[in-house]
Design a protein that fits this description.
heterodimer; A: 118 residues; mainly beta; seven-stranded mixed β-sheet; 11 strands; 0% helix; B: 111 residues; six-stranded mixed β-sheet; three-stranded antiparallel β-sheet; 9 strands
């Protein structure tokens, strides 16, 4: 059975760095894309980017390119989303999900709420 | 591919059918179109209802169906139930790219 479990909620101040995680199990982690999706409170879903854990190849949405870094550790079957310098506008729920070859997301994590406030 | 357009809200009474549209779907070089639909209840992660335009994953009710005409995809929910009240999102990608774009979301109210 496939499970996707994300790290817990974070409260940070502007300028701080942060890495959140997404651990998947129950399937061949290296063979499926993992996507990150942002949801600002009260707003819609935004696709941020993906990683193919098999070779760590990444693709970013133009809206997020340069603002976040996506990585993965095959040995830990875990994907990561990293910020070097958080802004208040990064406050949102972040979901990871397994992405299929036709862009569908079949398994989702429970979400990680990131709050950035001074 | 640009953002997809959905109506902000739709409503219906129990037992009725409703349709949510999603405009702006583009095809890849092979003229293939890839559309998925998700349901999100408050405080919960999204759940896939439909993928590849009209394919329903196992465990999803037959009351949910997908279709496409031109550049507009549609999600139809038949026999509305109170538990269907949620936000619904479409998404699409071109087969030649792994980039995905979401629609703005539609809030379904069951009267």
């Amino acid at each position: 059975e496939v499970h996707v479990v994300q790290s817990g909620a974070e409260v940070k101040t502007p300028g701080e760095s942060l890495t959140i995680s997404c651990q998947a199990s129950g399937y061949d982690f290296a063979s499926y894309l993992i996507a990150w999706v942002r949801q600002i409170p009260g707003k819609g879903l935004e696709w941020m980017g993906i990683i193919f854990p098999g070779d760590s190849d990444t693709t970013y949405s133009p809206s997020f390119q340069g603002h976040v870094t996506i990585s993965a550790d095959k040995s830990l079957t875990t994907a990561y989303l990293q910020w070097n310098s958080l802004k208040a506008s990064d406050t949102a729920m972040y979901y990871c999900a397994r992405q299929g070859s036709t862009g569908n997301f079949d398994f989702w994590g429970q979400g990680t709420l990131v709050t950035v406030s001074s | 591919q640009s953002a997809l357009t959905q109506p902000a809200s739709v409503s219906g009474s129990p037992g009725q059918s409703i349709t949510i549209s999603c405009t702006g779907i583009t095809s890849d070089l092979g003229a293939n179109k890839f559309v998925s639909w998700y349901q999100q209840h408050p405080g919960k992660a999204p759940k896939v209802l439909i993928f590849d335009v009209r394919v329903r994953p196992s465990g999803v009710s037959e009351r949910f169906s997908g279709s496409i005409s031109g550049n507009t995809a549609s999600l139809t929910i038949s026999g509305l139930q109170a538990e269907d009240e949620a936000d619904y999102y479409c998404s699409s990608c071109t087969g030649s790219s792994t980039l995905v774009v979401f629609g703005g979301g539609t809030k379904l109210t069951v009267l």
